Amino acid sequence: MEIKLASNYGFCFGVKRAIKIAEDYKNSATMGPLIHNQDEINRLKNDFNVGLYTNLSDVKENDTVIIRTHGIPKNDLKNLRKLNAKVINATCPFVTTPQQIVKKMSSEGYSIVIFGDADHPEVKGVQSYGEDQDDVHIILEPSDLEKISFKNNKIATVAQTTKKKENYLEIVNALILKNKEVRVFNTICDATFENQDAARELSKEVDIMIVIGGKNSSNTKQLHSICLENCPNSYLIENETELENSWFLNKNLCGVTAGASTPDWIIQQVVDKIESFN
Ligand code: F3S
């Protein structure tokens, strides 16, 4: 069986940058998981003694605390600084952008619409930058707009970086139909798209597709759903231990892709294991 890697896969710019920062600050701790990949978080702990704080109450004076790629809510950042912690910001610049847009547009009197998952840390962080929290609305589909009454007659909208552009356009269309002024900011990250386009193409030609990444990672889950559209034998795994020999029986071509938080060493282990089934 032949194995073919997608033309784009794995770590994006923001994740590479965050990991480099964490490696540079040994004996520190990240506020929340740095990226959505437990194996990489374990490696940072074992090799660089980079720990994990889940609560602000874990932080002690003079600790070095790294802000993760998804960012954290504005007040958490403020409170960290009050605790006299040394704060190192590893928020991806593509996440900082919607935070700053929400801050600026809400200060200019715009109602804010965020297209994203309300529970996602990135979205919570972006939301926190709105000046009037009652007028920052997180939605997932156009019908969600029907329940909202905006405080202003001008709307600004941003999207979670990992969302699909097609779905964002549906929301933008619905907003324009009902509002006179809509400022649309395309905050969707191209890195996600490059991986998605490559996965889409590859999944059209293979018999089986392996998607590697954290099961709680939104961009990995999207890669998986894109692959499933073209290749019903698409599997989402976190590492090589989840591979099953039976998946590969009578298959000639296996495609491999990986989410933006998946390190190369995990991808290599998966490829090696698939090769061993040959
Ligand atoms: Fe940043 Fe895009 Fe990666 S938002 S963390 S470069 S997927």
Describe the protein's architecture and organization.
There is one protein chain. With 278 residues, the chain is an alpha/beta fold. The protein contains 9 helices and 12 strands. It has helices at residues 13-24, 38-48, 74-82, 93-107, 121-128, 165-178, 190-205, 218-230, 264-277; strands at 2-5, 29-31, 51-53, 64-67, 86-89, 111-115, 136-139, 154-159, 181-184, 208-212, 234-237, 253-258. The chain has a 4-stranded parallel β-sheet with strand order 1-12-10-11, sandwiched between helices. Strands 3-2-4-5 form a 4-stranded parallel β-sheet, with helices on both faces. It has a 4-stranded parallel β-sheet with strand order 7-6-8-9, with helices on both faces. The mean pLDDT is 94.
